Amino acid sequence: MGRSAENPAALGNAAALPYAVTVRGLTRRFGDFVAVDNISFDVRQGEIFGFLGANGAGKTTTIRMLIGLLKPSSGSGRVGGYDINREQEKIKPRIGYMSQRFSLYDDLTAGENLAFFGGVYGLNRDQVAGRIAELDSALLLSAIADRMTASLPLGFKQRLALACAILHRPPILFLDEPTGGVDPIARRYFWDLISALAADGTTVFVTTHYMEEAEYCHRLSIMYKGRIAEVDSPPAIKKKYRMTSIEDIFIHLVDR
Ligand SMILES: Nc1ncnc2c1ncn2[C@@H]1O[C@H](COP(=O)(O)OP(=O)(O)OP(=O)(O)O)[C@@H](O)[C@H]1O
Ligand SMILES: [Mg+2]
């Protein structure tokens, strides 16, 4: 496992750095239903921020508001210093986003998807090729470059989607269940890569349903029915609830 992930205290200078994401009173209603209910939190630069919650807790809805895909009903926030209500177009090029639903082109090869998304972010073919080479040991992209995306096993689709999200070296990365359907070995590689990105200063906002992955995060938010029930580091949360397993604490907070 990556260095910083092994030791949550090893966040280095991140605690002294400005916040990459700030959220105040963020709310989203769909009709009468309140999917995200007045949440507030901050994410530090270079932090791996785990955004946990049961199905339907409001995680994806929150991410979509932060990256300019969905208008908040009320509340405010900043991503990379830009206002989520007014400066969405400035936020988009400065972030990477891996959506929960696979969103690449099925009828292109993996390599063509990489070239396409690289182009969207202003990278030329040589730059894309360079990034593919850099990411190859973690994501094994060269092995799939000529395969049709539709034919890839789920774990490889996820690797490709992660690669497309980080090609342009975004300072802030939003990963919505990046390891869903990924086998344990590939998940280990994903988390080594996530830890390395964070150690280099990338802020990683990540959702997961795997509680052992929660342990690799510097801080966690645990969401329940649109509200944030807890935000702190894994050791601090364990101390507070006097439990040794994040899974037990998650169930304690969410299964009421
Ligand atoms: N466009 C929409 N219209 C109506 N309801 C919505 C819409 N988008 C999300 N919801 C509802 O808002 C709630 C929160 O959904 P969201 O997708 O944010 O949850 P989640 O925490 O990401 O869950 P999961 O772990 O299953 O991905 C759910 O009840 C969902 O049905
Ligand atoms: Mg979701």
Tell me what the structure shows.
The chain is α/β, with parallel strands linked by helices and 256 residues long. The protein has one domain: Rossmann fold. Helix content is 36%, strand content 25%. It is built from ten helices and ten strands. It has helices at residues 3-6, 59-66, 88-91, 110-120, 125-139, 154-166, 184-199, 211-214, 234-241, 246-254, and strands at residues 19-30, 33-44, 48-53, 74-79, 82-83, 95-98, 172-176, 203-207, 219-224, 227-232. The strands form two sheets. Strands 6-7-8-3-9-10 form a six-stranded mixed β-sheet, with helices on both faces. A four-stranded antiparallel β-sheet has the order 2-1-4-5. Strand 4 and strand 5 form a beta hairpin. Helix 4 (110-120) crosses helix 5 and helix 4 (110-120) packs parallel to helix 6. The longest helix has 16 residues, at 184-199. The chain is globular. It starts with a helix and ends with a helix. The structure holds adenosine-5'-triphosphate and magnesium ion.
Indicate the topology.
Layout: H1 3-6, E1 19-30, E2 33-44, E3 48-53, H2 59-66, E4 74-79, E5 82-83, H3 88-91, E6 95-98, H4 110-120, H5 125-139, H6 154-166, E7 172-176, H7 184-199, E8 203-207, H8 211-214, E9 219-224, E10 227-232, H9 234-241, H10 246-254
Parallel strand pairs: 3-8, 3-9, 6-7, 7-8
Antiparallel strand pairs: 1-2, 1-4, 4-5, 9-10
Helix pairs in contact: 4-5, 4-6
Bound molecules: adenosine-5'-triphosphate (ATP) and magnesium ion.
Distance between the termini: 33 Å
Described by strand count, sense and barrel closure, the largest sheet is: 6 strands, mixed
How many helices? The count is 10
List the ions, cofactors and other small molecules found in this model: adenosine-5'-triphosphate, magnesium ion
Number of strands: 10
